[in-house]
Amino acid sequence: MNLVDKIEALARLGVWIQSEPEKLRDLMYRASAKNPWFTIESQHKALHSIARSFLDKKILTEWTHKYHLENFKGQKKVGMILAGNIPLVGFHDVLCCFIAGHYALIKYSEKDDILIPALLSQLGEIDAATKTYFQRVERLKDYDAVIATGSNNTSRYFEQYFGKNPNIIRKNRNGIAVFDGNETKEQMNAFASDIFDYFGLGCRNVSKAYFPKDYDFVPLLDVLHEYKELALNHKYKNNFDYCMALNLLNKSKFYNNGCLILVENEQIPSRISTLHYEHYDSLSTLKEELNHRKEEIQCVVSNQKVEGFKHFGFGKAQSPNIDDYADGVDTIQFLMQL
Length: 338
What we know:
alpha/beta, Aldehyde Dehydrogenase, Chain A, domain 1, Aldehyde Dehydrogenase, Chain A, domain 2, 2 domains, 7-stranded mixed β-sheet, 5-stranded parallel β-sheet, 12 helices, 40% helix
């Protein structure tokens, strides 16, 4: 397939997603029954985000034009181990592989093995030539390169098994937020999406926030309390109750508004239903500290730009553009060098 044909097929897939056919709704219910974290609302958000930000013809054309992919042939076999923490989180890697003309050998996460295969199947219905680019596998073998996403623990095994081949191996990262005390109520409200979208399970979700000294948490907690319906989700509520008990037993310093626990903690990763926080003396000192923790940070949500990090406005952490690559590694450039 040439690049124009690929873009045309992908754009038609985007239109299909946004039409919300009954077939797709049925698949969403299946995925939700298999993985209760994948609520219909979460899947709907992920699907439409992909359709709008990844599968738009103009966006695809402008994105690929930067790399001069028109005559790039690809044709390598790329093993892909996809994550399953949020719906369709591995779709971008598969998309990059296809656009570059390589063949994807895909090992799906058991947590997310319904929607992506269904989208690729539909892509094959749109253009049968796409079918040869994707193969579902249970074990990777006979590959030229690997893209694997996992935890800090599994990444060590990935490096051991795949280190001799060209690879992108991703570890745990999280989003952080930096407040300066001048945020509006609208920005605080938008910040809720950065914390709560996908129940905070994504690597772009904000797990820790930094505040100036003497910051008044009451207005922020009041705004975030408007998302109290999260506590109606039994899995989220179980985590919330567990974290409340844990913090009470540990006599931690924390705030609680009924759906979020704000805990003073130096660590960047936080448990579901919990947001870690720290105070800072000056933005310059904070920026220096964050640069020492680059390997832990996926993105920064703030009105303040932090040099060296991908910056997002409040409410935008889980709405990446097509060229917002995970861990700051340009996947297309990697694939073109194979």
